[in-house]
């Protein structure tokens, strides 16, 4: 589990294509300072398992499902990526619950700079938009952010100078794809309430038909 607080920006130093998979090597002195085999490191919000550590870089395998769901399908040598180690129990929880399980990708639509922050609008697949609420949480390329507003197919976030400086979101331009992970709590709520809502809807429809037949 992660918190969405990026620890450093790393650089992709190697990408190897495999059958329905890829193996990437990322340089990140901070996140590899205590890394060992089997550890989890989030790369642009994608939880990956360390399979090798050497000279300030780590290597991880990216499976087909991850390539299909995320922007890592287009990752290339020289790319800059957001990195975060798994959260430690007992430490301050600065962001929100982030699993590193990307739900899909969005597209940067526009950037609106101001004196103290920058408003960024991002297009989102309609099937994910229902999990977003104003002032709720969203993870964009591994960064925990607060939703400013949301519609059926886009949302906006405000980026403070530190976020612009410390993460890749400072350089994302309109047309760029970004990884999105919605709040897992929203997904669980939907899953738990869906059967009850379906039952209520069915009962309501049945009562409606009965009333019409009686009249």
What portion of the residues fall into strands of 2 or more residues? Answer: 35-45%
Order of helices and strands: EEEEEHEEEHEEEHEH
Shape: globular
Number of domains: 3
- Which range best describes the helical content: under 10%, 10-25%, 25-40%, 40-55%, 55-70% or over 70%? 10-25%
Kindly report the spatial arrangement of strands forming the biggest sheet. 1-2-5-4-3-6
Mean pLDDT: 91
Number of strands: 12
Structural class: alpha+beta
- The separation of the N and C termini measures 57 Å
Total of DSSP H or I helical runs spanning 4+ residues: 4
Q: What ranges have pLDDT less than 50 throughout 5 or more consecutive residues?
A: none
CATH topology of the largest domain: Elongation Factor Tu (Ef-tu), domain 3
Rg calc: 20 Å
CATH class of the largest domain: Mainly Beta
Would you identify the CATH architecture of the largest domain?
A: Beta Barrel
| Biggest sheet layout | 6 strands, antiparallel, barrel
What's a quick, concise take on this entry?
With 215 residues, the protein is α+β, with helices and mostly antiparallel strands. The protein has four helices and twelve strands, in the order E-E-E-E-E-H-E-E-E-H-E-E-E-H-E-H.
